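Quick check before the chapter quiz. The format below is the same one you will see on the exam, so make sure you can read both the input and the output lines.
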Amino acid sequence: MSTTWSGGDDEPRGFLGMTAREQAILDDASAHCGAALARALNATGGLWTHAQTAGRLGVTEETLELWRNEDRLLALPVIPGVWEYPAGQFQPSQGGQPEAVCPLMPALMRRVREMISPDLLTPLLLEYQVALGGRTGMDCLFEGEVEAVAELVRHVMCDDDVDE
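Here is the expected output.
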C-alpha cells in the first residue's frame, strides 16, 4: 500500500516539526551531499588531522588553529571540537618546501561563509567543475580567480536564474 503525501496541515510531524516527506527529502539530500564529500576527499588525498596538517605546513598547531579561526583554510568538524583538513586544498610541496595554504581562501570565505557550510563547499573546491572550465575551485583560487568560485557557490546555493 502506498501513501500519498498531501503536505496539508493535518499531516503528522516528527522531530523538528518536519513531515515524513520533508524528512525523506532531507535524508536524500544529506546522503547525496555526503557522497559528494566522500568522493571529493577520496580523489584528493582524504583528510589530514590537525597535527598532520600543522606538520605538513611547517607551522605550530596553535598557528593552524588561528588560521582555521581566520578562515585561512578549509576545516571540517569530525566530532565536536576536533577539526580535520581536506588535503586537496593545499598546494603540493616543491623543492623540499612544505605544502602551501591558498592565500585567497580568506577572500573566498568572506564572500561565501553565510551561504554554504564547509562540507558542502569542499566538493565544489576539490572536484572538477564544468562551470569553471573543467578546473577545480582550488585551481581557480590558486590562479587568482576568487570571484569565479564565489559565483559558482552563489549559483549552486541560491540558483537565482531558475526560470519560473
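If your answer matched, good. DSSP finds seven helices and five strands in the chain.
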